[in-house]
């Protein structure tokens, strides 16, 4: 490629790619059925999809078909990413003179359309001014022609390499320690009760039981009860779930965050249990459901990368376990729900590597404190 082969439209496209990928952190997405189009996605922005169209559209009939096709493809992306609404910016670089653009932006406010012939068309467009006010300052380059093309290409490639490194860091399995330690503790406590024939005494002294927690201030029961199990099946099912889910959470979040998620979820599960039930409760299920909440939260933020796995594996497992809790007698489903909600909120508070902004962590901390205080008030002071 040489300078003569690069026209103004190509340079505008490259500058747009530089801005949206390098500056605004949009990611290219592969969309089947889209030719001579570039689709960029950033689910954290108000405009989640930016579509750069280099196809020549010469009349209104072609434009109507393009709008129909775009809505169909966006609908698929919404289902894949579990997005309820999705604003889309369509940037056309080769519209014919016969295309009437005056009515297009009035049809659907979620779909915005821009006709671009020159850079001036971009920087003076009202949609750009409202949503991407810094675009103008990021279109100025010292380089020209082929040198500019190389610069932009190299910077985009460098950004994509950095993103790949970050994703490898997040998804590469880490050495699991805390999960195995917790499983070992659960097993040892059960074996201790079994061989000393003190299982019933341990349950009487340490189970999650509202009247004793409120009446005798035995708050330690909120935690100790989550380390006790009624029988071998109860123990093995929880240990297996902890092994499968805990190892993933520990790998994705890290050991310290994993511990915080586990014990916060155990406490919120126990608190909701004593708030809505008068029965004694034991088992690690509340904490395990908190880990499910952490996986759910992680999967939502990384749903673009894990694709259908999030919908086909994570959500059905959580839904199935919640249903089992409601159907089978004797299961503390209030503890499950409390742990699940606590797990999601505390995951927001501890944050996701490379994904979270400080304000999201602060919001998570505030919501976690409010939820915990609310459960303490209802479960201990009101009940």
Note the topology.
Elements lengths: L7 H16 L3 E3 L7 E5 L5 E7 L6 H22 L5 E6 L11 H4 L3 E5 L3 H5 L2 H6 L13 H27 L6 H18 L3 H8 L3 H6 L5 H4 L7 H22 L1 H22 L8 H17 L1 H4 L1 H20 L5 H18 L7 H25 L1
Parallel strand pairs: 3-4, 4-5
Antiparallel strand pairs: 1-2, 2-3
Helix pairs in contact: 1-6, 7-8, 7-11, 11-12, 11-13, 12-13, 12-16, 12-17, 13-15, 13-16, 16-17
Give me a quick take on this structure.
64% of the residues lie in helices and 7% in strands.
Please describe what this structure looks like:
This protein folds into two domains: about 5-170; about 180-380, Rhomboid-like (Rhomboid-like fold). The chain has about 375 residues and is an alpha/beta fold. Helix 2 (about 60-80) links the parallel strand 3 (about 45-55) and strand 4 (about 85-90). The mean pLDDT is about 90. The longest helix is centred in the middle third of the chain and has 27 residues, at about 145-170. Strands 1-2-3-4-5 form a five-stranded mixed beta sheet. The protein is elongated and about 85 Å long. It has helices at about 10-25, 60-80, 105, 120-125, 125-130, 145-170, 180-195, 200-205, 210-215, 220-225, 230-255, 255-275, 285-300, 305, 310-325, 335-350, 360-380; strands at about 25-30, 35-40, 45-55, 85-90, 110-115. It has 17 helices and five strands.
Strand content: 5-15%
Strand ordering within the main sheet? 1-2-3-4-5
Counting DSSP H or I runs of 4 or more residues, the number of helices is 17
Low-confidence stretches: none
- What's the end-to-end separation, in Å? 75 Å
Based on DSSP secondary structure assignment, what is the total number of beta strands? 5
Largest β-sheet summary: 5 strands, mixed
Q: Tell me the quaternary state.
A: single chain
- H/E series: HEEEHEHEHHHHHHHHHHHHHH
Structural class: alpha/beta
Task: Give Rg in angstroms.
Answer: 27 Å
CATH class of the largest domain: Mainly Alpha
How would you describe the shape? elongated
Q: What integer is the average pLDDT?
A: 88
